[in-house]
Write a structure and sequence with these properties.
Elements (H helix, E strand, L loop, with lengths): L64 H18 L4 H42 L2 E3 L7 H4 L17 E3 H5 L6 H29 L8 H8 L10 H16 L7 H16 L3 H4 L2 H20 L2 H12 L5 H21 L23 H31 L6 H16 L3 H4 L2 H9 L14 H5 L14 H24 L9 H25 L4 H6 L9 H17 L3 H11 L5 H18 L4 H9 L16 H4 L12 E2 L3 E2 H10 L4 E5 L7 E6 H14 L8 E3 L15 E2 L4 E2 L4 E3 L4 H11 L3 E6 L2 E7 H12 L33 E4 L12 E4 L6
InterPro entries: CBS_dom (IPR000644), CBS_dom_sf (IPR046342), Cl-channel_core (IPR014743), ClC (IPR001807), ClC3 (IPR002245)
Pfam families: CBS, Voltage_CLC
GO cellular component, one term: Golgi apparatus
């Protein structure tokens, strides 16, 4: 198993994603690989009573999308056929039709309420590191001074009701002693919050760590991770997210809020059988929940829908788009009702710029896009290298010490700099804000304002004062600090998002560039660029706009989002007029980042953790064939199969006990070798146990048959066991000469876990999702191909054939051996032939 106790899956759990292929329902129609069935043909002879456990999925396995959709269609047909029988059946049909809207409504309500609670609690605990409100302990700094009549304009953040820790403990607000005391208390609270967060995660809910978006993407692609979206994970992630944000670590709460919303969607889906009993339908709810999570994280409901569509969802039908939109709407409405920011606005960083942008500013905007792409590529490589080192060394075995060490370094370095000491969201808000007469930030200390010779709003491009230059140095130090600490923070065993730290880095860089451009326009106003576009006595440059563009560029460079990111940013800030600069910067950052690697940070973490995720954005351009990727390879023994009526119960049990592979192709006979279907080891085991409990006469030497009618047996033979109901009669098949480009496309679009490779209807091998992922990884790393180029085998027969081109003789069963091996060994899928009947 994996060395990481928090992510116990390292790729071994889905070695053959064949395990949960349950029975197909009746009237199932499919045509592939030359197999076709009419709508009137029953592919399966269903049992009168369903076998308990058949059709369910084990942990760390992939669902069968085709079977789940087929099962949902059968359920829908059954409801429609009965709704005219009685009023009760009609009511049930209405309930079934509206259950989708009910579950997304509940998800939106819960997501908005939890997001508001997290925002309020995080703001209060973040201010607790600096002081406390004596009049009301539950007020944060801003709320404490709202009703004070003794607050001055120059010192608006100070009021008698708010006391710093130095004032409470030492009785003095100024001086070296008070600075040291505040420094100590700031570090103490930061370490306490971080320690409590990592302990809660380690003890109660290991899955509550990290961002959650890589796992959400994998789950939405059809993978099963039990407990990842459970109630314990939801509760612990909500609590520890507040603690992690309040500790001052370089992380955000926006990514984990998507995880929180998906936990709500998963829990509420169990209230409705339509979703609780169908894994594919449940993923439609999770797609809507992820949209609600982004909606409450940024106050961007439309951006949330686009984020779910562009970034996380694997299957996104039109009705899911509508329900995602509705879930995001409900969540945003609830958050607006709670009003956690106290500004009666839904947006997190509301901006109001009074000057338009000019065409010559596209050049610095594009430069910010280049910086965002370079930062994204550097961050992905550095963070993945550090996370890989954490997994492969003893350092990863002590997550509590790692969190404490990072929190201590963060607190000790962050406190002296006011731009790193404050909450990251507050820092971004300050960087986005345009300077006006009501701003007291150092970034707005221009000489024209200091002299008071002119009205501030009428001042042209302003000459920077000493406060601005001091702030520039502090911002440069804050930029270096944020870059370094974010690399080591993302991936800690606490809830940690990446949106806000990335936006902070871009906002700092953008504000620096914006101030530089502003001063350039002030000192060189006669240059043709400024002379052409700038009017005399008007502001040409808005540094806050540069901060906003830089934030979008850096976030785009890390995540490689485009459309959804632009929409999120303009919803986040209200800057609808500045879509073109945002689009230019985001597109540039994606191009630059893709030049160093097409993977975003979430795809990189998916690959690092070994999750079976086929990215639809990747292009397959190699000229390999299905016969070169299938198992067994040419150097392996030929594939063996089960015959449809020659086995006994003892034979099957011996195969099951001696192997750990989960799939068995079934053929007509040893002579014919034509493919009949595909049976799962797990379903066979469950069916045998169920038959022994409920059917008399099933013995070890009972004949097992997968046909419609029982074979002719002697009179003294024990009762045979019919397993046709668990046989997949229409497995996906491709020929051995099918290009892998088509096979990969089928796996992506159909959500397959495996397909069989045939030649003239005779099964030769199998291709699983893991085989495709291994093949893609080998091609990425420029490793030698699995076999010689395809044109070398153009006239060569597959290994299952003799030199004369005729099929070789086969035995009557197959062993598919697959086992979880130690994390340092790469699991290999092998197919072994039994030389004779199973003992």
């Amino acid at each position: 198993m994996s060395a990481d106790p928090y992510l116990p899956y390292d790729g071994g759990g889905d070695e053959i994603p064949l395990q949960e292929m349950p029975k197909r329902v009746s009237n199932y129609v499919m045509s592939n690989g030359g197999n076709a069935a009419s709508s009137s043909t029953h592919l399966l002879d269903l049992l009168d009573e369903p076998i308990p456990g058949v059709g369910t999925y084990d942990d760390f396995h992939t669902i069968d999308w085709v079977r789940e959709k087929c099962k949902d269609r059968e359920r829908h047909r059954k409801i429609n056929s009965k709704k005219k029988e009685s009023a009760w059946e009609f009511t049930k049909s209405l309930y079934d039709a509206w259950s989708g809207w009910l579950v997304v409504t509940l998800t939106g309500l819960a997501s908005g309420a939890l997001a508001g609670l997290i925002d309020i609690a995080a703001d209060w605990m973040n201010d607790l590191k600096e002081g406390v409100c004596l009049s009301a302990m539950w007020f944060n700094h801003e709320q404490c001074c709202w009703g004070s009549n003794e607050t001055t304009f120059a010192e608006r953040d100070k009021c008698p009701q708010w006391k710093t820790w130095a004032e409470l403990i030492l009785g003095q607000a100024e001086g070296p002693g008070s600075y040291i005391m505040n420094y100590f208390m700031y570090t103490y609270w930061a370490l306490s919050f971080a320690f409590l967060a990592v302990c809660l995660v380690k003890v109660f809910a290991p899955y509550a760590c990290g961002s959650g978006i890589p796992e959400i993407k994998t789950i939405l692609s059809g993978f099963i991770i039990r407990g990842y979206l459970g109630k314990w994970t939801l509760m612990i992630k909500t609590i520890t997210l507040v603690l992690a944000v309040a500790s001052g670590l370089s992380l955000g709460k926006e990514g984990p809020l998507v995880h929180v919303a998906c936990c709500c969607g998963n829990i509420f889906s169990y209230l409705f059988p339509k979703y609780s009993k169908n894994e594919a339908k449940k993923r439609e709810v999770l797609s809507a929940a992820s949209a609600a999570g982004v909606s409450v994280a940024f106050g961007a409901p439309i951006g949330g829908v686009l984020f779910s569509l562009e970034e996380v969802s694997y299957y996104f039908p039109l009705k899911t788009l509508w329900r995602s939109f509705f879930a995001a709407l409900v969540a945003a409405f609830v958050l607006r009702s709670i009003n956690p920011f106290g500004n009666s606005r839904l947006v997190l960083f509301y901006v109001e710029y009074h000057t338009p942008w000019y065409l010559f500013e596209l050049f610095p905007f594009i430069l910010l896009g280049v910086f965002g792409g370079l930062w994204g590529a550097f961050f992905i490589r550095a963070n993945i290298a550090w996370c890989r080192r954490r997994k492969s060394t003893r350092f990863g075995k002590y997550p509590v010490l790692e969190v404490i060490a990072v929190a201590a370094v963060t607190a000790l370095v962050a406190f002296p700099n006011p731009y790193t000491r404050q909450n990251t969201s507050e820092l971004i808000k300050e960087l986005f804000t345009d300077c006006g007469p009501l701003e007291s930030s150092q970034l707005c200390q221009y000489r024209s304002q200091m002299n008071g010779s002119r009205a501030f709003s009428d001042a042209p491009d302003r000459q920077a004062g000493p406060g601005v230059y001091s702030a520039m140095w502090q911002l440069c130090l804050a930029l270096i600090f944020k870059i370094i600490m974010t690399i080591f923070t993302f991936g800690l065993k606490v809830p940690s998002g990446l949106f806000i730290p990335s936006m902070a880095i871009g906002a700092i860089a953008g504000r620096i560039v914006g101030i530089a451009m502003e001063q350039l326009a002030y000192y060189h106003h006669d240059w043709f660029l400024f002379k052409e576009w700038c009017e005399v006595g008007a502001d040409c440059i808005t540094p806050g706009l540069y901060a906003m563009v830089g934030a979008a560029a850096c976030l785009g460079g890390v995540t490689r989002m485009t459309v959804s990111l632009v929409v999120i940013v303009f919803e986040l800030t209200g800057g609808l007029e500045y879509i073109v600069p945002l689009m230019a910067a985001v597109m540039t950052s994606k191009w630059v980042g893709d030049a160093f690697g097409r993977e975003g940070i979430y795809e990189a973490h998916i690959r690092l953790n070994g999750y079976p995720f086929l990215d639809a954005k990747e292009e397959f351009t190699h000229t390999t064939l299905a016969s070169e990727v299938m198992r067994p390879r040419q150097s392996d023994p030929p594939l063996a199969v089960l015959t449809q009526d020659d086995l006994t119960v003892e034979d099957l049990q011996n195969v099951i006990n001696e192997t750990s592979y989960n799939g068995f192709p079934v053929i007509v006979s040893k002579e014919s070798q034509r493919l009949v279907g595909f049976a799962l080891r797990r379903d066979i085991t469950i069916a045998i146990e169920n038959a022994r409990r409920k059917q008399e006469g099933i013995m070890r030497n009972s004949r097992v048959y997968f046909t419609q009618h029982a074979p002719t047996l002697p009179a003294d033979s024990p009762r045979p066991l019919k397993l046709r109901s668990i046989l997949d009669m229409s497995p996906f098949t491709v020929t051995d000469h099918t290009p892998m480009e088509i096979v990969v496309d089928i796996f992506r679009k159909m959500g397959l876990r495996q397909c069989l490779v045939t030649h003239n209807g005779i099964v030769l091998g199998i291709i699983t999702k893991k085989n495709i992922l291994e093949h893609l990884e080998e091609l990425k790393q420029h490793v030698e191909p699995l076999a010689s180029p395809w044109y070398h085998h153009k006239k060569r027969y597959p290994p299952s054939y003799g030199p004369d081109g005729k099929p070789r003789s086969r035995v009557n069963n197959v062993q598919l051996i697959s086992a979880f091996r130690e994390s340092e060994e790469e699991s290999e899928e092998e197919v072994h032939l039994l030389n004779g009947a199973a003992p």
